[in-house]
Design a protein that fits this description.
Length: 358
Amino acid sequence: MEASVEYKRVVIVGGGVAGALLARSVEFHADVFLIDPKEYYEIPWANLRAKVEPDFAKRSLINHKDYLRNTRLVTASGVKVTEKEVLTSDGRWILYDYLVIATGHPYSIPLTRLERLQQFQAEYQKLQSADSVLILGGGPTGVELAGEIVVDFPGKQVTIVHRGSRLLDFIGQKASTKVLDWLKAKHVNVLLNQEVKLDELSEGQKTYETSNGTKVSADCCFICTGLPLSTEWLREGVLSECLDRHGRLMVNEHLLVRGKSNVFAIGDITNVPEIKQGFYAQKHAAVVAKNLKALIKGGKKLTDYCPGTTMAMVSLGRREAVAQFPFTTLIGRFPGMIKSKDLFVGKTRKEMGLEDGD
Ligand SMILES: Cc1cc2nc3c(=O)[nH]c(=O)nc-3n(C[C@H](O)[C@H](O)[C@H](O)COP(=O)(O)OP(=O)(O)OC[C@H]3O[C@@H](n4cnc5c(N)ncnc54)[C@H](O)[C@@H]3O)c2cc1C
């Protein structure tokens, strides 16, 4: 940084897909703080492969200090926002000129990279020693996990219990039907329109009863139901009025929080009308990076964010995938070639300025 320039302070709360990329994009244009309870960035779409191949996570868990060169890291959670400051869980008040909220989801995962790697190892051992596996939730996480298991461990009996009337209900019916057929061909037992109460689960449980009385035996169980949003912490401060009834932050076309001129929101917590995907969270980060650079230079013209289409891709093990494009839905090796081998880990690392190794 040049000593003669007075840098504006940009505080980013949340070091996930959107916040991490934004910090990297603006760290040489401002005095940047990144507040995140974890010491590392996790590429979320790689974490199901890591359950069947724990070493895969070595490339997808990246300490914040390894891709950020000029950002001050605050290892804590944001707990309150005022007009000028953010209060963190360790009692620090951090002043901001510009604030970006990127708190996505409140993952209950270890706070250090090493512990997270050990967690994947433990999950792998649990999986390896099981003959039967129960997956609760038939959204993208549950379906991708089932795909990983049936491809890597074809002998295991997998059951998916899903509350909805079709799998992958965030995308079109055609994709759901194709995936259901794919899973059935791999002998996955799919139970739709029923659920297992999460608060009744216990450690070491081997028999489960669904809401319509079906009994399922399983040596281990993975909870893959949707994660809540991490916006409850905003209810105390100046942004409480900016949350919609679903707990999403309302933003305008520049991704500025409604009614604010120096507070942006990016990623899954926004009310942008599009499916919630990391791919779009990265696009939010790119638009806000441009807007912050413009504002810092004293500019007035800001870039608009154009909401995404309903494009989505769900991997089915190491070679296949289902993809929904604007005009068609495909399943099999072709979409698999785009996503399933490396799960975009090399690409994401490159975007973070990292070599593709460990
Ligand atoms: C298993 C899985 C597979 C997926 N596959 C794909 C895929 O193939 N393609 C795709 O595009 N998307 C995929 N997604 C969705 C994608 O991961 C999300 O859309 C994306 O992570 C959203 O980014 P985000 O930055 O908004 O939030 P997140 O990535 O959830 O990051 C939020 C960050 O905020 C931190 N945080 C939370 N609360 C606080 C707080 N109070 N203070 C400070 N920090 C806080 C968290 O620790 C985290 O670091 C997948 C998701 C999962 C779980």
